[in-house]
Write a structure and sequence with these properties.
Layout: H1 10-17, H2 24-32, E1 39-41, H3 54-74, E2 79-85, H4 91-103, E3 109-113, E4 115-116, E5 119-120, H5 127-136, E6 140-143, H6 163-166, H7 168-182, H8 185-188, E7 194-196, H9 207-210, H10 229-232, H11 237-241, E8 245-247, H12 256-264, E9 269-270, H13 281-288, H14 294-309
Parallel strand pairs: 1-2, 2-3, 3-6, 6-7, 7-8, 8-9
Antiparallel strand pairs: 4-5
Helix pairs in contact: 3-4, 4-5
Length: 314
């Protein structure tokens, strides 16, 4: 990556500084504090599409997938499964790599990002990828992607105080989810499973704005006709947002997981921490403070993931 994309800048420096990303001894020592704990691994940011052309990008995805599959084989007591990488600047090659990763390497699903080098996921060119994942019957992990180049104010060239990360990523997730709903993705593929990072972004908290608020979709817009968007969906639009899964990677926040649990339901919340970029202990503590019954607790910690990933954890 350093050779291919020497100008990665801040994100590259940040990832190099997080040693447990590449030092397994450090990673395992951190995991040991939590007893019977295993991880589902994936590649971290940045999206491959942001720094490599399609030929190099798909090769990097293959290298990453082969390496993660090897880690799972070598350390089954540590890593329960892995999530494959793709490079959606080449959609056909990414669909083929997803099939290879799932059928030959044993990947439990595929990770994509909320935009592909600035292009939204509901564009027609990405339809074959979603069809391939529906055929494979494996989940898609949806990770936000946004940089400081997305400014907070038109008068400024960049986002300041890392708001592009703190609030920009949940916004990215929410917009991507909305675009996938309104383009009819779940009508075309009703059994498609998408796991949203950070407990569904802004969606659970803003269910009123999304539901009743968007019932008048188009009334605020004069230069584009949205009048037939909702009527072409087979169900009320808010229902589709509950088709998504959501993870608990909220940096140990006390309120977001509970809000997400109420919105998505106990069958759609899966345990995740963002480790080693996010904390394990505070995430567990936040879930334990919810006062859940044993059955719901097991669903969140491993049961839902077992069903979703088609993997038995214990």
């Amino acid at each position: 990556m350093a050779r291919i994309a020497p100008k990665l800048g801040n994100i590259a420096a940040r990832l190099r500084s997080v040693r447990p990303l590449h030092d397994l001894d450090l990673r395992f020592r951190g995991m040991d504090a939590f007893g019977d704990y295993r991880q589902v691994i994936s590649l971290p940011n940045p999206p491959i599409e942001d720094f490599a052309d399609e030929r190099v990008g798909i090769e990097l995805a293959r290298i990453g997938n082969d390496a993660m599959a090897e880690l799972v084989r070598k350390h089954p007591s540590r890593f329960a499964a892995f999530v494959a990488a793709v490079c959606l600047t080449d959609v056909d090659a990414s669909a083929a790599e997803a099939r290879r990763a799932v059928t030959e390497l044993g990947a439990s699903g595929v990770q994509i990002f909320t935009n592909i080098a600035g292009r939204p996921l509901d564009r027609p060119e990405f339809v074959p990828f979603f069809s391939a994942m529906a055929d494979l019957d494996r989940p898609i992990w949806l990770h936000p992607a946004r940089t400081a180049a997305s400014s907070d104010y038109a008068a400024e060239p960049n986002s300041r105080y890392e708001m592009w990360w703190c609030f920009g990523w949940p916004y990215e997730t929410s917009v991507a989810m909305s675009r996938l709903v309104f383009c009819g993705l779940f009508d075309r593929h009703p059994n498609l499973k998408i796991v949203t990072h950070h407990c569904g972004g802004m969606i659970p908290f803003y269910d009123g704005r999304i539901g009743p608020g968007m019932q008048v979709l188009g009334s605020r817009t004069s230069d584009e006709d949205y009048s037939k968007v909702l009527s072409t969906l087979k169900r009320p639009h808010l229902d589709y947002f509950r088709d998504f899964y959501a993870d608990t990677a909220m940096f140990g926040g006390q309120y977001g997981v509970g809000c997400g649990l109420q919105f998505f339901g106990s069958d759609k919340i899966v345990f995740a921490t963002d480790t080693p970029l996010g904390p394990i202990g505070p995430t567990i503590a936040a879930i334990n403070k919810l006062g859940l019954d044993p059955q719901t607790r097991r669903k969140i910690y491993c049961g839902n993931a077992e069903r979703l990933l088609k993997v038995k954890f214990g």
